[in-house]
Design brief:
Layout: H1 3-31, H2 39-70, H3 75-107, H4 117-141
């Protein structure tokens, strides 16, 4: 892997990791504890924030894959990089879509039991964090 590609891949990975940690594990749970934030308001904010995060993540994933594939990265970098991109696609295409459908119902006034879908999203985020750490460390060492 060329040094430029490795540096780019590492930088992209750690920027992405920072965004996921800050938004998914800090902002998301805290917003519902703020005074005056109701479930509908929190859901509305969450939809906007996660739509923006996922858009930036898609750009970062594409740039990361370009850097990794163009730079001739070893399997220790390529495997987790492809894995995190596939995970993101599944998370957005399946898990977040289902959460969006559910939040549409809640925002329309329907009373629903507590969602387990958020647990799937959190599980994806935990795996994503692990993959991003693996990519970032492997790219920095390459």
């Amino acid at each position: 892997m060329t040094s430029g590609s490795a540096a780019t891949a590492s930088a992209l990975t750690f920027v992405w990791l920072g965004m996921v940690l800050a938004i998914s594990f800090l902002e998301a749970p805290l917003k519902f504890r703020a005074p005056g934030v109701t479930i509908p308001i929190g859901l509305g904010i969450g939809r906007l924030v996660f739509r923006a995060l996922n858009t930036v993540e898609a750009v970062l994933a594409a740039a990361l894959l370009a850097a990794v594939l163009a730079g001739g990265a070893p399997a220790s970098v390529t495997g987790p990089a492809v894995g995190v991109a596939v995970l993101l696609a599944a998370q957005v295409g399946v898990v977040r879509r289902r959460l969006g459908q559910r939040s549409d119902r809640v925002l329309a006034g329907e009373e629903l039991p507590r969602s387990r879908g958020h647990l799937a999203y959190v599980a994806c985020e935990v795996v994503k964090v692990a993959l991003l750490v693996a990519v970032g460390v492997a790219a920095a060492a390459a």
